[in-house]
Input
Amino acid sequence: MTTAALDVPAAAPPVPLKRDATVIGLVGLAHGTSHFSHLLLAPLFPVFIRDFGLSYSDVGLLVSIFFVISGVGQALAGFVVDRLGARPVLFAAIFCFLLAALSASQATGYSGLVLVACLAGLGNAPFHPADFTILNQRVSAPRLGHAFSAHGLTGNLGWALAPVFLVGITALADWRTAYFAAAALYAVVLSVLFWQRDHLRTEVVVREQNAPRGAELAYLKLPVVWWCFAFFLLSTMTLAVVQSFAPSILQSLHGVSMEAATLTVSAYMLSGAVGMLVGGFVAAYGQQHRLSSERVVAYAMSAGALLLLVCATGWLGNVGTMVALAATGFAVGVGGPSRDMMIKKATPKGATGRVYGTVYSGLDVGFALSPVVFGQLMDRGWYSATLVGAALVLFLAVFAALGVGRRAA
Output
């Protein structure tokens, strides 16, 4: 045996699956809690309209308040995550949700609901920069695709759980009890995360004393960051169309019942969750075979856009259109983990929180902007045109994804 052979460093031992799985599970639990909180008020809007004498415009404004605070806060939260670490920010966010649920249980009018929307929006703001900072630092590279897959899947499950949880408890007891139960749920989640806090620790960015002024904002000059922002804004606008208007479109174009139309939206979200699970394996395959993440995203989103165009034609009839719309969720979901890998590749070292905060604020902007834009088409009865517009916006998201790839290379 030669001396040179003895000098070769030993390969780093593989990270145990249990350690990675624990981190992924904890972050997934937190992310599901965040998506649950997106719908902390909406499922009980009919109750608030009845009990407090509110209009649809009044309750709609609560959604806007939530996403405006979340969007602005998300961009700013990235700096806090980079400076303080993701763990304390994550704990503070869930505590805000707990306060929001307790405030909802005591609300006596519209001002109380506005407070709930503000607290929930503030709590939602830090989640993406905190979650992805933890995943990128704590999960081994070969398992990141699966980590991003689980992250997206748990978010969809959080969306699915909220209406069942809140409406179900309201039916059994009353809506104030439902919010007490939600507060208890947040307390349990916070306790679990605190108990396993060692798995959530991240390294903070140490600011150099001689760093030039504005160095922390240098990432904003990178075109790739704004291409990522545009991608999230555009792709989320399509999701918002499905969540907000699909039931009305299906009822108007195909005469299906409200129950069937609503079930189709639920099927879309569950199909999206399954797609994200599959997308984790697709992302891992892409890493191993040099298939770029932005290409995977482009293929998946293009398939989703084509399915939306088919839905707009009405060629498939009522049942076929509902099935195709649900399949759209699967196609878009497959691209989810590769989308997050794409953002990771575009992120400068030491700026994870800031970049993810800025980029994912595009999601909040998309949710806030889409109902205003496509609501104009719906008001005119242009239901097929609304689906066509959603498909075209998703094609623009494909263009943005490819633009990210060209600038991140």
